[in-house]
Give the backbone structure.
Amino acid sequence: AQSVTQLGSHVSVSEGALVLLRCNYSSSVPPYLFWYVQYPNQGLQLLLKYTSAATLVKGINGFEAEFKKSETSFHLTKPSAHMSDAAEYFCAVRNTGNQFYFGTGTSLTVIP
Amino acid sequence: DSGVTQTPKHLITATGQRVTLRCSPRSGDLSVYWYQQSLDQGLQFLIQYYNGEERAKGNILERFSAQQFPDLHSELNLSSLELGDSALYFCASSARGVANTGELFFGEGSRLTVL
């Protein structure tokens, strides 16, 4: 069975500092990997996705993630945090049967 | 706007009651997924339909049921409601075949409060 682990349910960074949100997956085959963002009282929006093309994936709002097969990781980064980045972030993996498995989420707080 | 429409946005009801949540997927999407999001459980997969047929079942209670209709909209029925059923219920859809870019498109959710 596939699963996703997000390390750190809460992350706080200062405005302008590096954002690093961690995600590790378990999969027996090359997966499809995703990062979603959820702002308060809204649905989940796709930030970026990995579909076995380039290992460094760029998404919206300056976010990017790197697929590292040897580490089974897909960590999300942003060089400089902005106040508007405060939200809940979910990592997800999709299997070949089109089933999606989500992590438990990481709440990002940006301190002014 | 993801193109996935959910109604109602908010619903308040009493314990023991039954409610129906409705979802219209993006135009052309054949797959519909239902998720429950609560503070203590995170995002839980409930059930998936593809072109009217149940494709996968997750942590869905027996008191809950769903279906996908010929026009591809889906309904999630929650019965004998308990306080613990209070949550945000999301519907998501994904594309079919070669148009499948892989991701799920989420609706805004239906917030259910059971009093």
Observations:
- Chain B has no helices and eleven strands.
- The mean pLDDT of chain B is 92.
- The CA atoms of residues 9 and 99 of chain B lie 29 Å apart.
